[in-house]
């Protein structure tokens, strides 16, 4: 699915999304499950790219379904994420066994091959090649929304999910802290207000008036 003509595409990977943005440089946002490697490669090829064309990867968060292909795609670029999720991907931080979501992440670790790529920890408000990082903790502690203000694209990861055209916060069962996630939705709503497109990890991206719909959800929380 094209999100912005000649600029942004959805990579639909069987229940989870990754995204590709070309603004003169090529950015992959999230990366699917380990078994999605060939699908991601095919999406890249369909767009006229290969893994070597990807200039960077921006992660919304550390979960197997968002980082799973990084080790096998053949990338040669930096990966950007906020802490502690960056450390979880690198293996320097362990998901906490004292949290139900942390336990779930621990269970999935045997399925993950860690990428031999430089992982750069970024901070709230930092800009990376035209994308602004906004801290949105709750689903995971280091969850990040990435906004390309020039193109009107908001990549909000698993703060929300879409079903039937409606948005809802990620449920308690898959959040470190569901209340904090709801607060993050409220906090970031102004940041995505100018976005025509709001693209999430699960469900169909909102392609028109996405920022307004996200803000309406925030107002209802």
TrEMBL record:
What SMART domains does the database record attribute to this sequence? Answer: Lactamase_B (SM00849)
> SUPFAM superfamilies this protein is in?
Metallo-hydrolase/oxidoreductase (SSF56281)
Q: Which InterPro entries match?
A: Metallo-B-lactamas, NDM-1-like, RibonucZ/Hydroxyglut_hydro
* All residue ranges annotated as the Metallo-beta-lactamase domain in the record: 15-202
Instruction: Return the PANTHER family for the record.
Output: ACYL-COENZYME A THIOESTERASE MBLAC2, METALLO-BETA-LACTAMASE DOMAIN-CONTAINING
Q: What is this protein called?
A: MBL fold metallo-hydrolase
Source organism of the structure: Salinirubrum litoreum
């Amino acid at each position: 699915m094209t999100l912005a003509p000649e600029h942004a595409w959805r990579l639909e990977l069987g229940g989870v999304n990754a995204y590709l943005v070309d603004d003169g440089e090529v950015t992959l946002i999230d990366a699917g499950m380990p078994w999605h490697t060939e699908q991601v490669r095919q999406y890249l090829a369909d767009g006229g790219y290969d893994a070597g064309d990807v200039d960077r990867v921006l992660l919304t968060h550390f979960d197997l379904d968002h980082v799973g292909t990084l080790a096998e795609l053949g990338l040669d670029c930096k990966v950007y994420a906020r802490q502690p999720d960056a450390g979880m991907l690198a293996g320097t931080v362990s998901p906490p066994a004292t949290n139900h979501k942390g336990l779930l992440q621990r269970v999935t670790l045997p399925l993950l091959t860690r990428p031999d790529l430089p992982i750069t920890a970024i901070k709230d408000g930092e800009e990376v090649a035209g994308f602004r990082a906004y801290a949105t903790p709750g689903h995971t502690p280091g969850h990040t929304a990435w906004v390309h203000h020039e193109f009107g694209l908001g990549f909000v990861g698993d703060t929300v999910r879409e079903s039937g055209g409606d948005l809802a916060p990620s449920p308690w069962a898959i959040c470190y802290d569901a209340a904090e996630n709801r607060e993050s939705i409220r906090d970031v709503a102004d940041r995505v207000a100018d976005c025509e497109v709001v693209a999430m990890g699960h469900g169909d991206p909102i392609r028109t008036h996405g920022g307004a719909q996200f803000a309406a959800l925030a107002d209802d929380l």
